[in-house]
Fold:
Amino acid sequence: MAGAPGTAGVPGVPGVPGVPGTARVAGMAGPTGAGDATGTADAVDTTDSAGAVSAVGTAGTAGATGAVSAVGSAGTAGATGAVSAVGSAGAASGAEVTGAVHRVDALLLERLGRDPDRTALVCADGTSVSAGRLRERVLAVAAALRARGLGPGDRVAVYHERSVEFVAAVLGVACAGAAHAAFDVADPPARTLGMLEDCAPRAVLTSRALRDRLDGCGVPMLTDDEYREGRTAPVDGSPDDPVALIFTSGSTGRPKASLISHRALVSRMNALQTTHPMTEDDRIVHHTTCTFDMYLAEIYWPLLSGATLVLAAPGGQRDADHLAALIRDHRVTTMYFGVSLLELFLLARDETERYDGLRQVLTGGEPLPADLVHRFHARSTATLTNLYGPSECTIHCTAWVCPRDPAVDTVLIGSAVPDTELWVLDDEGRPVPEGEPGELYIGGAGLALGYLDRPELTAERFLQSHPVAPGRRLYRSGDLVRARPGGALEFLGRVDRQVKIRGVRIELGEIESTARRCAGVRQAVVVAHGTGLEKALAAFVVPETPSAPAAELTALVRASLRGWLPPTMVPATVELLDAVPFTPNGKVDRLLLESRAARTTPSRPAPAADADVEELVAAVWCEALGLDSVKPDDDFFDLGGNSYNVVETVTRLRERLGAEIPLAALLEEPTVRGFAEEIRRVTGRA
Structure:
């Protein structure tokens, strides 16, 4: 890709400013025995070659204390004495880094071909796939796409449950030179179809069992049995070609897609391997949903480093018992848990159970409570690392290894990972002194190319040649932080209305926009209230007709939101207002609504003293999900339930029935009728 920064467009990606074809990438961890760092993509063949570029390097180690980033500078004092940068991990060496070393497809094919007989992937049922066989399947996907004319600049949707087919599809798209967008099959089809329209893929990779859900999308579909065999030549592409699209909630009601380049993804895999190295003796679980960018690390990191990827069963991320079995039975050494999932996992398992087989655990996605750190350390000898980073910066940009110190009461997000620079600036874009709060700006090789077809938003969030970083790009995160002595950052909150509910990044504006589409709604305001696992969304709506029946309208709004939004974005409560309250300066009084939401308890049926199991299940579901009523054949997860509600629901039923009920019972029988029958079976109750 030619041209100066900000002048060249990314091929096939309208509205995204170009980036230079070569870039000074600071602090890349050079692989041992790697080929020349300036090698080009056409020097890499799909067959074994002693001179092929090495996969992710292992230069740099996490020491005995698990120290994370090799911070090149803790910041330099500006003219005013303010700290101008809080972290710049890996100072620019002056070497131009281009070509195959920054193409993830080249690295992947070389690593899989280096030792074809080793086990690369293991399924939950014990089925294994060798590196050589996985390579063949990846190349078959790539060949099928290339045969249909797809290549660099094109986009391909992946619509699979978690499986070998899902992994092969994601990797095969990269090896075809295109960029994939993975869609969660558990999301409402209407929302998926809307994002597909935005994504405008040239093909959808799916299974025969799932293709009917996407009827009407108008995009050619390829099922996994159509690309079992085939090979393709290497792609002559740029490190700055997109390799993945990550959709996140959008404030306008339209999800936005960050475009992740090969260079950014390779940079982050090198950062993980530098700070938390894995070898062929390691195993990591892939269980994170494909709507959260950590799934990219769970797939690429082990395959590039020679470790083994263990696949959780579809839906298994909801089941602490399933994850514990994977850790134990497959000798897992490395694991990522979202903060709330880590909380769930520890709550759901016996408190005497230990996880000393784990060597390193990473977490993130939302603030990490110190109490949770202490409880984890009490049950495992593994290191626990807190990661931070928006998807616009590709998985993570800071890391902090939590010390084994019971006196620690504040968990930090840490300092810059390799290839990253961080700036804490005030409202005027000036550096703030150490210890003062400011907005975090992020630069370096991990930055996304921008947002797909959103040039105005890209220009607003990805700043070209900011005064503190002339000639470079910075991402304006919208997060408030402050630097602690030594440069590690403390997260303080958001400067805008974005919230996180159990690790999922949510724009309240998207929910409000969706609620306003409901018939009979004139205005809608959504707020978040509570903390940790108790954090919830509440919707307040003003009807078009003041005399509208409250019960009917709230039920209609709930049903509409469930049909248009994923469960994590559906408010727990919907309440009617005569009018939206405003502050004296004319803004919506969100603090008042948050306080009201925290006090509001939905009316729910109280079970009779002699209620049978099915009635009791229905009552507890209403309590856990914030509903007025449920029907015998309603599905727990279709109603908005998630893994955290599972624990709450089963715990309440255990207490009320005085019986042991396995968490898996609700996952296997997610309807009121089916769950009640399963409880009767395992407890012997009528």
Remarks:
- Confidence is low (pLDDT under 50) at residues 1-84, 91-99.
- The longest helix spans residues 131-147.
- The two ends are 70 Å apart (CA to CA).
- DSSP finds 17 helices and 29 strands in the chain.
